[in-house]
């Protein structure tokens, strides 16, 4: 994660939660805050909602995504938020390239001991079994 954006996301989450908590605990609105004419309550709700969206925007940025991803996913409600939280962190080091599986490449079979021999096991490209020295094909 990009530390700077993660810090912004954390701070705005705290502001959002604190804003709504303050409103509900200290002065629960008796009606729709926007119609109440109570400028103080409106300011708190506006700040908390802005912090809500800013938290998701910066969280997406912290994981190396476009901020638009963070703004779009919460529109899908809880599901979108879960998706956002579980998005792969693009800022992490990419996984090491996979080593080719051992069964790739040409394989031979020893006619004497019936052992399967991978081409990398053959010495100096001779078609001889490394175990018994028999012929492989
Ligand atoms: Zn053999």
Describe this structure in words.
The protein has 137 residues and is mainly α. It folds into 2 domains: 3-86, no CATH class; 104-137, no CATH class. The chain has 5 helices and 2 strands; from the N terminus they run H-H-H-H-H-E-E. Helix 1 (3-26) runs antiparallel to helix 3 (39-62). The chain is rod-shaped and about 95 Å long. The mean pLDDT is 88. Residues 110, 112-113, 115, 129, 131-132, 134 line the site of zinc ion.
Question: Quick summary of this structure?
Answer:
The protein has helices at 3-26, 33-36, 39-62, 67-72, 77-86, and strands spanning 107-109, 116-118.
How many domain units? Answer: 2
The string of secondary-structure elements, in order, is HHHHHEE
Uncertain segments: none
State the helicity in percent bands: 40-55%
Terminal residue distance: 53 Å
Major sheet attributes: 2 strands, antiparallel
Task: Work out the strand percent.
Answer: under 5%
Instruction: Tell me the radius of gyration.
Output: 31 Å
């Amino acid at each position: 994660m990009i530390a700077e954006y993660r810090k912004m996301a954390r701070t705005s989450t705290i502001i959002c939660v604190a804003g709504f908590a303050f409103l509900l605990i200290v002065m629960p609105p008796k009606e729709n805050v926007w119609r109440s004419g109570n400028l103080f309550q409106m300011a708190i709700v506006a700040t908390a909602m802005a912090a809500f969206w800013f938290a998701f925007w910066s969280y997406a940025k912290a994981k190396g995504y476009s901020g638009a991803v963070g703004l779009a996913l919460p529109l899908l409600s809880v599901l979108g938020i879960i998706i956002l939280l579980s998005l792969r962190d693009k800022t992490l080091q990419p996984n090491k390239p996979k080593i080719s599986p051992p069964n790739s490449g040409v394989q031979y079979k020893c006619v004497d001991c019936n052992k399967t021999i991978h081409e990398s096991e053959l010495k100096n490209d001779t078609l001889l079994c490394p175990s018994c020295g028999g012929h492989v094909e």
